[in-house]
């Protein structure tokens, strides 16, 4: 993670949204948004009634979940230092 909290530029699907929120709303608001969105995406993936669980969308949602988990891990590590 960049010292300002920005995620290093890469191909992660959620990097742009996270960086926008970091700049606009700050670290704590971004962390809360990531946690909420991660929970929503996990729930959607688990529901057979959600479009997120369908073949054509599942991989996109799974990648976003991975991006959110990775960012939260980086956030937790940065707070420990």
Largest sheet: none
Distance between termini? 12 Å
Overall radius of gyration: 13 Å
* Regions with little confidence, pLDDT below 50 for 5+ residues: 6-11
Relative helix content: over 70%
By helix and strand content, what is the structural category?
mainly alpha
Roughly what fraction of the amino acids lie in strands? under 5%
Order of helices and strands: HHH
The outline comes out as: elongated
The whole-number mean of residue pLDDT values reads 88
Question: What is the number of E strands?
Answer: 0
Number of helices: 3
Structure notes:
The protein is mostly helical. 70% of the residues lie in helices and 0% in strands. The protein contains 3 helices and no strands. Helix 1 runs antiparallel to helix 2 and helix 2 packs antiparallel against helix 3. It is elongated. It starts with 14 loop residues before the first helix and ends with a helix. About 7% of the residues have low confidence.
In short:
70% of the residues lie in helices and 0% in strands.
Per-chain topology:
Elements: H1 15-25, H2 27-46, H3 55-80
Helix pairs in contact: 1-2, 2-3
Structural key phrases:
single chain, 81 residues, 3 helices, 70% helix
